[in-house]
Amino acid sequence: MNVETARFGTLTIRPEDLLMFPQGMLGFPEMQRFFILDHTAGPFRWLQSADDPDVAFVIIDPTCVVSDYAVRLNRQDLEQLGLDADSEWSEDMVVAVIANVTNPHAPTVNLLAPICICANSRRGIQSVQHHSGLSARHPIGRTTSKRQAA
C-alpha cells in the first residue's frame, strides 16, 4: 500500500508492517495505524502515522538512555496488545520512547509514557507508567540507571 508522508514523500508499506494502536497515541486518539522507519544514522527511528502524513514521532530504545529501563503493563494494557496476562510477553515486546529533539542542544525523551509494541499481534499502546517517578522530559546525554533517572 502507498502512504503519503510529509517528511519522506510517498512510501510503499507492506500490510504486515502496519502497527495498530487501538487507542491511538496520547493526544492523537484518532490515529491508529503506524509503521516504523529507520533513521539514517544513530539510534533513532521514526514512528510514522499511516493516517496523517504530518504526524511522525522520533523514537529510541529507552535502554540507550536508562540502562535498566523496564515497563510494567496492567491487564488492560496486555489486552489491548492482544496478550494474555499469564503469558511470557517480554520476549515479544518492543519498547520505545518518544524523543524531543526540537532543541538539538538539549534533547529529551519521554520515559513516563513508553510505546509498547507486541511483535506477534502487531498491536501497540502508549502506556503511562504512573507512580514510576520517571520524567516526560529526561535529558539525553549519558546513560543512567532507572534509580538515577527518577
Give an overview of the whole structure.
The chain is mainly beta and 150 residues long. It is built from two helices and eleven strands; from the N terminus they run ββββββαβββββα. It has one domain: BH3618-like (Roll). Helix content is 7%, strand content 31%. The strands form two sheets. Strands 3, 4, 5, 6, 7, 8, 9, 10 and 11 form a nine-stranded antiparallel β-sheet that branches. It has a two-stranded antiparallel sheet with strand order 1-2. It is globular, with a radius of gyration of 15 Å. The termini are far apart.
Task: Describe the structure using short key phrases.
mainly beta, single chain, 150 residues, 9-stranded antiparallel beta sheet, 11 strands
Layout of strands and helices, then pairs:
Elements: E1 2-5, E2 9-12, E3 19-20, E4 33-38, E5 45-49, E6 56-60, H1 75-80, E7 93-100, E8 108-109, E9 115-118, E10 123-126, E11 138-139, H2 146-149
Antiparallel strand pairs: 1-2, 3-4, 4-5, 5-6, 6-7, 7-8, 7-9, 8-11, 9-10
